[in-house]
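Chapter summary example.
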Amino acid sequence: MEIRESGGTVLNISKRELCYTDDPLGFKFPRSINNLWNTLYVPSGSDYNVILADGSEIKVNSKSSIRFKINDTQDDRVVYLSGEAYFKVENIDNKPFVVRTSKGDIRVLGTEFNVRNYDDEKAVITTLEKGMIKYNPKDVRKPSIIILPGIQVIDDDYSNELRIELVNTYLYTSWKDGKYIFEDTSLEEIMKVLEKWYDVKFIYDSKEIKKIHYTGVLKKYENINSMLDFLETSEEISFQIFGETIIIKNK
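The structure predicted for these 251 residues follows.
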């Protein structure tokens, strides 16, 4: 795992968590590194937890990156996201926390929410578990919206309006706890998740295969063969593995 600081310094991190809060023994970050931008990239097959200087926590999913300041002294706390991350934000009066995505900003005070913003999916999906947030789309045709717990907002390239849905939030946040939960989910959507985690490419033998639906729980850190064995128990599909390419066929 690497963290690249502005100026080119690379920090090699051996554990699954990076903490920027002040040390309990009294260490304070020097003023010289205030407002220094860092970028964290998490590759396939991994996720990573970051604790910011204000105590806010960010769990970053695979094939995702965040850009943030070590010790933000500005009026707003800002994090840039590409990919997927779960945020647990500490409330600080008069200092909002802003997540910047490819399609808009999410402005919060203190809350817990998930943001999915992968470039290849052409959408930003924001799911709120606790608190309240405001989503401000870049597209001026789409209005800003206040999001309450249990609400999901989808901002995509295919509509001039935001899609607002009432959802079971844990279906979209369970990845942070080491599992994927699917409820009547299409095989195509499941494969999108597994492609990013295992860094593989799925090819469908027919379009009809994509429409097969599954309900179940997949353990995130298991070998991909265990995942495929579970999906094959439906007796509808089989997999042929050729390195990093996997072909899905009807049985």
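To summarize the output: The helical segments are 170-173, 187-198, 224-232.
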